[in-house]
Amino acid sequence: MEEIRTQITNNIYSYKTASSVSTTNSNKARTTVKTDKTTQTEKSTAGYDTTEKSYDTYTKEGLTRNTVTENDSFPDCNPIQSLAKYVKAFNEHYEKVNEENKKFADPKQHIMEKYYNKKSPYYVEGLTNAERKICVENETNIFDGYDIHCLYDPADMEEFGGSNVFVREMEYNQETRDAINDVVNHLFRKNGIVISEDTALRLTVDPYDYYIHAEGVDEEMAGRIEAALNQGKNGYNLYQHIYSCNPQNYNETPPDQYLQGDREKMVLYHFVDKLTGLDLRKLENRDGKYYTPDGEELWSALEKKYADLVAENKADAFGLGEYKAAYDRIAKNGWDKSTDCNLSLDYKNGYLCDIDMEHGYGQGQTEWQDRVREWYDGVKAEEQKRRRETILREANEPTAAEALNLQEDNQQNV
Questions:
Q1: pLDDT per position as a tens digit, 27-61
Q2: Alpha-carbon distance 88 to 29, whole Å?
Q3: Is residue 322 within 8 Å of residue 1, measured between CB atoms?
Q4: What sign does the dihedral 70-73-76-81 (CA atoms) show?
Q5: pLDDT digits over 145-189, tens only?
Q6: Sign (positive/negative) of CA torsion 288, 290, 293, 296?
């Protein structure tokens, strides 16, 4: 259940697959990105699509925001977008290469020649054997209209000097924090909200409605702040951003807010919401069972809805059972028995700051980022050194074709 909980929880925060930032080339091949971290998928391990719900209308306590201007909106916080520039560069590179390859009478033979035949006028110097294999596979795949993969591709080294998931996501988180910070300050100015320097304002987002709650100020000011910030998907995007800033991703001990709360309850809430549109918090709980407004036991309703998805090949046939233990526990104990997975940021002197952590993205919390970059510069330098040594060593070795010819010559001489 832990694997299911983690996977679905991540899906709730809209960690899309790399294809969400890919573009399509003229042969309709799509560039996908493999990273050195586990790829988040749109379909949960349990087989049910738990991507984000619609936020066309935001209503709470009489507050409604149907139309939100771009300047009033927090940016979508999807860490996979940190790969966007890499995907764009790869697409452009291989689209250009593919057009060149198609000028030859036999494009696939030309691809093989330029990477494996040292006597070819088109032979490409300065690659390791592993990189040659990657180039051949990618160029052949894009010619045939199939996916190409960016991991360890030499185009990555040429364009960016390599890439690292920790640096990419760290920089993306910082860019996102800065953008959200700008929108918050814009909304405060727009609504005449002034936060004094001695005010300990905390913005807390609940994991169900994604409503931003203002704490540390009086009720009147809290209402004004909440009315200003809770527009469109702002709460959803803020929650997702805070979640992605968990320092555990850098092997640091996470603050309590990343450890507290009943995550299975959160996952179950969104599962029920996606499947039935019902708010689990508001359903009747009688004798350890939840009931729909029609009087049907909720689990029975879930089974029917899920069976429809399975019949339409939209869900794993065995996925529903992964939720049963959490459902039974929460139904038996009651909704309020465990705490919620709320996430918060402090607002100080015009900046959003992480709570109880040095590895943050707020004012005075970013020194660690320089250490990460310095570490990665060292990693890159060492990797480049190994790469140069490999290229020199392999340059003195026969290619696969040359080795085969040599073997045939030896057999004939015998």
A1: 334 344 333 333 322 333 233 333 344 333 333 43
A2: 13
A3: yes
A4: positive
A5: 998 876 667 766 555 556 677 788 899 999 999 999 999 999 999
A6: negative
Type of residue at 289: K
Written as six digits, the tokens of 203 are: 């913005």
Q: Which of 80, 58, 77 is nearest to 67 (CA)?
A: 58
Structural tokens at position 38: 């586990």
**Cα 193 to Cα 27: distance, rounded to the nearest angstrom:** 53
Number of H helices, E strands in the chain: 13, 10
pLDDT of residue 48: 34
* Paired residues of 108 in beta bridges: none
SS3 assignment, position 71? helix
Say if residues 32 and 24 touch (Cβ distance below 8 Å): no
Amino acid in position 69: T
Signed CA dihedral, 3, 241, 147, 28: sign only: positive
Alpha helices in 245-356 (DSSP H): 263-276, 298-311, 324-333
* Contact yes or no for 202/344 (Cβ under 8 A): yes
Nearest CA to 75 out of 170, 177, 171, 206 is that of 177
Among candidate residues 78, 2, 80, 8, the one with its CA nearest the CA of residue 39: 80
Closest by alpha carbon to 224, among 181, 194, 202? 194
DSSP label at residue 297? B
Place of tokens 């729909």: 292
Q: What is the CA radius of gyration of the chain?
A: 27
Letter string b/e over residues 2-17, b meaning 16 or more CB atoms within 10 A of that residue's CB: eebbebbbbbbbbbbe
Tokens of 135: 């180039």
Identity of residue 257: Q
Q: Which residues pair with 205 in a beta bridge?
A: 212, 343
- Would strands 201-205 and 212-215 be described as parallel, antiparallel, or unpaired? antiparallel
Cβ(140)–Cβ(70) below 8 Å: no
DSSP β-ladder status, 343-348 and 284-286 = unpaired
Counting every residue written for the chain, the total comes to 414
- The one-character DSSP state at 128 is -
Residue (of 204, 83, 209, 372) closest to 361 by Cα position: 372
